[in-house]
């Protein structure tokens, strides 16, 4: 036999002479051969599994070859069953009917060993190809399963790196995060620089998936490790947190410009707050504008854009200063909220977000955040996961 | 090569078996025809005759008895056409009997 794939053949004919002849030929090729005298008996043997080649006559009692082929194609098999129909009927409509019944090849009856040999070679090629595909599919399924497990793990790590909800003196932080897939490119954090100043930010790395998440992890590490540098920059700017924020942001941009072999860039809102005075410096780098909600519920977007990080070497960033009074809130968010689509593809939108946050001003911060989450889930409807990471970072000055 | 040789040995043996069986096959065809004659509208009998001729055509040709195979197939095709036309009548059966008669004269000489 000229293929490594073992062939388990079933011969189906009501004529014992034909069965014996076919059997002798197939056995001479090294095939394992069993026989059936009609379609019904053949079908039962095939259902037991293991057979990958069937050579069947057309005209038979009980169940003819055509019905047998139809029934075989309706069965579920672990691997492909190649069907050869023996026929003396060469009329076009008969051949078409047989092909539609699932026949792979025909052998004219009476048959010659040379022609049968050639047909069997073709069958071996198809079966070997099919077995190769099946093996490759198994490997792919295994690889996919492993990748899924690793992505699940990466997601768990990403969630584990998110900050705990916390109060820093008069400043309360809360947040909402929904990943669009296993891992995403959104990240946020807040941390003390010293007793007086806090740093907070939201970033959104372009794209999704592992590369975006790794970039987000790297940004988080960079920003968290820059606390000392921030303190020194504030001091060198004589306590001007606006200037300090601009200097820091330009430095981050230079850092990301140095990253090679990546087409990733990121948008960010970067904030420094003086907890003693309630003064906030916000620098926007291509990110949606933060929303300032006054005690009255009036909502004001802050900032006018700015360039994303990692796009232009010497990009300059401008800080916007905001004075917080008790009860004021700041909301930083990703475009996963404003661009969240409903079942018809309509986006949630900036205005809807502003209206909702303004209306929720009377509620405790955690409740206002939860209301937004509910509104987004309702908006999304039955469309499965969010189409982008959904991030909201809320800050309340008390 | 050995596999081929074994196959051809088996082939020759089966060919001789076929020749030995041939008179019985023709007898069975004859009996099936008589059954059709007795019950002219009986589809099951007609199918029996059809199947026997189909089997003879395929087997004879496959063992190299080309003319016998072709003649059996020709009659088989005619039977199928009659069936498609809407059944066999006595005249049809008489014609079939006439067509079958030469088959008996075609029994090949058995190989040594």
Can you characterise this structure?
- The complex is a heterodimer of chains A (398) and B (112).
- Chain A is 41% helix and 23% strand.
- Chain A has 398 residues and is α+β, with helices and mostly antiparallel strands.
- In chain A, the strands form three sheets. Chain A has a six-stranded antiparallel β-sheet with strand order 6-7-16-15-12-13. Chain A has a five-stranded parallel β-sheet with strand order 2-1-3-4-5, with helices on both faces. Chain A has a five-stranded antiparallel β-sheet with strand order 8-9-10-11-14, with helices on one face.
- In chain A, strand 10 (266-274) and strand 11 (279-285) form a beta hairpin.
- The mean pLDDT of chain A is 91.
- Chain B has 112 residues and is mainly alpha-helical.
- Chain B has one domain (2-105): HPT domain (Four Helix Bundle (Hemerythrin (Met), subunit A)), CATH 1.20.120.
- In chain B, 83% of the residues lie in helices and 0% in strands.
- Chain B has helices spanning 2-38, 43-62, 66-85, 90-105.
- In chain B, helix 1 (2-38) runs antiparallel to helix 4 and helix 3 (66-85) packs antiparallel against helix 4 (90-105).
- The radius of gyration of chain B is 16 Å and the shape is elongated.
- Classes of the chains: A alpha+beta (398), B mainly alpha (112).
